[in-house]
Amino acid sequence: MFEHYLTYQKADPKRQRRIAIASVVSGTLTFSGIIFVWAANKMNITKVDPPTVQFLMVQMSAEEAAPPPPPPPPPAAADTQEEVEEKEEIPEEDVPEEIVQPKETPDKVPDVKKSAGGAKTNAVPGGVPGGVPGGVPGGVLGGVLGGQLGGQLGGVATKRDATQATAPKPIAVVMGNAIYKPDPEANKLAATKAGMFDKRPGTVTIFFCVDVDGKTADVKTKKKFPHNDPKVDEICRDTVKKWRFKPFMVGGKATKICSEVDFNIKFN
């Protein structure tokens, strides 16, 4: 029986070849595993937990300030007219003219009117003695053509645009007309370099204007984040660009105004 087994084993060379191949493969894998473990110990690879942010607090401070006083009413036209009439009542001294007999008598005598004081005037109704053609009734002597009543002599006639931006307004007054004013997104601030590693608090000041249609414009960083992370400044600017307001009315017209807002950023 034993001899039969030996004869059967010797007659099957394929099985011996398979056993040899399996031995070589197992030995190679074992050697490779030993080399890998040795290299890993040499490299000293350690697993580091990702940074986590427990909570993030954003504060937006606003200075309480009283609303600006209403603009003073324009001077009444009646007062200006009375001043002009008072000036008209002052008589001018008559200078005696030498009477000379003309050599030729014109066929038509020009129609020349005289004022109450005897001075010659133009034919403009309500004109002032000494005025020039093209002047405005109720004007002042020495004024500029095209000027405005009540203006100063020698001044430049300018027209103020109702949509022109005025001086910066307090943020408390501007926020009174706010329709949509979201805070900076906490997940974006937490993903910045300051939120993941530094975590020191700081303040960012943003300058912005509210246009006549209620949208923010001219958004700029006036005071940067103190810990050298421009991404925090960019997130604050993007937040202000999303704000919307009701138009600010001055004299019945929408007016562009500007202001500043502080973002107090705190990480934990």
From TrEMBL:
InterPro entries the record matches: TonB_C
Transmembrane portions of the chain: 20-40
Domain TonB C-terminal: 201-264
Protein's UniProt keywords contain Cell inner membrane: no
Keyword Membrane: yes
Extent of Pro residues compositional bias: 66-76
Residue ranges, compositional bias (Basic and acidic residues): 100-114
Biased composition (Acidic residues): 80-97
Keywords assigned by UniProt, alphabetized: Membrane, Transmembrane, Transmembrane helix
Region listing for Disordered, in residue ranges: 62-129
Name recorded for this polypeptide: Energy transducer TonB
Source organism of the structure: Nannocystis pusilla
